[in-house]
Amino acid sequence: MLRFEEDVSLKPYNTFGIEVQTKYFFKVTSASILKEILNQNPTLPIRILGGGSNVLFTENFDGLTLYIANKGIELVEETQNKVLVEVQAGENWHDFVCWCLDQNYGGVENLALIPGSVGATPIQNIGAYGVELTSVFNYCKALNLKSLEEERIPKEACEFDYRSSIFKTHQKGNYIITSVCFELQKPPHQYQIDYGPLKDYFGTSVPSIQEIAKAVISIRESKLPNPKILGNSGSFFKNPMITQTHFEQLLLKYPEIPNYPLDEPLVKIPAAWLIDQLGFKGTQHGAAGVHEKQALVLVNHGNASGKDILALAQQIQKAVQEIFEITLETEVNIL
Ligand SMILES: Cc1cc2nc3c(=O)[nH]c(=O)nc-3n(C[C@H](O)[C@H](O)[C@H](O)COP(=O)(O)OP(=O)(O)OC[C@H]3O[C@@H](n4cnc5c(N)ncnc54)[C@H](O)[C@@H]3O)c2cc1C
Fold it and tell me: What are phi and psi of 232, to 5 degrees?
């Protein structure tokens, strides 16, 4: 019989540094143990946790928190210009990016320094500096919580979108991802350096993937708070997409509004700009706050509770709705 730890604080397991307790806690080191736990405890409420860098805990959990910690990287296929690498869900994402840089496998360099586990990367199709996970994702293996069978889920079935996939929408809570298989370039031959800050960084030079990763790390470190120093979960809100008509109305009042036209008849507006316009940037509300350099990042100045952070998030959502008639969706999972 597997033994669970009891009444465990999750403070060390979430980058916001929120103090909540879970009734039971278990560190999962293999897919077979995971299956065994679920078989033996069919009625116990469960919650899956990776690096805790995209969650906001707002209350104690009266169930079992499964901390995914299975490790391993395996080369499953190699051809002249690509490799398929299967990585266990509990591997740290940035460590895996560094491993790829050491092997000179291209494709994930722009995603350097994103906190969290490999298993969580498909959940919201992580993205940064012009690259999204979908561009390197081949398949993942996941335990179906209804059948308790492991399934191999190909890219087409994941319905990847901007910070979204089936695991965050209609299959939410139905799967536990146990490994992810990536298709990487060998040697690297396609680079994404058109994205604003990277373009400024490199100008017309053609960098290596190692140089791109170094630039990404340095830009990220200059802009984003380190969760080890100031609790946060990265971008708290998604960048909203509005209709062309709505955008044109806003443009009359705010001619300087930054925008990114999309393929569809929609326009993406940086949520950070909206929040900044309303004067929230750098403000503190008790122990909860909005980061001084990046208005999209909510921070824990010390002993904020999840409810304090949530109240601030709701205050921002309300103000953005009232002034711009835009609904801000959270990127962070509120639990
Ligand atoms: C400073 C900072 C910067 C960030 N920058 C970025 C960025 O540039 N781009 C970006 O996309 N994100 C960014 N994030 C958000 C976060 O790092 C990513 O979303 C990351 O993939 C979350 O991984 P995690 O292991 O910490 O997931 P967790 O926070 O542990 O979990 C997130 C969600 O996924 C579920 N989950 C986790 N693992 C599994 C699994 N194996 N199977 C099924 N469900 C699972 C959880 O139940 C939860 O609902 C940032 C966060 C921080 C703190």
Answer: -165, 170
CA distance 127 to 253: 31
Q: Which CATH number fits domain 231-334: 1.10.3470.10, 3.40.50.460, 3.90.78.10, 3.40.50.970?
A: 3.90.78.10
113 — pLDDT class (breaks 50, 70, 90): very high
Statement: the pTM of the whole predicted model exceeds 0.90: yes
Share of the chain above pLDDT 70, in %: 100
How far, in Å, CA of 50 to CA of 57, rounded? Answer: 14
Q: What does the chain come to in residues?
A: 335
Class of domain 73-223: alpha beta
Closest atom of ligand 1 to 117 CA is: 25
Q: What is the CA(51)–ligand 1 centre distance, in A?
A: 7
Q: Which residues line ligand 1 (CB under 6 A)?
A: 15, 48-55, 68, 89, 114-117, 119-121, 123-124, 126-128, 176-177, 224, 227, 232-234, 333
Letter string b/e over residues 308-331, b meaning 16 or more CB atoms within 10 A of that residue's CB: bbbbbbeebbebbeeebebebebb
Catalytic residues: 163, 235, 331
Strand partners, 132: 127
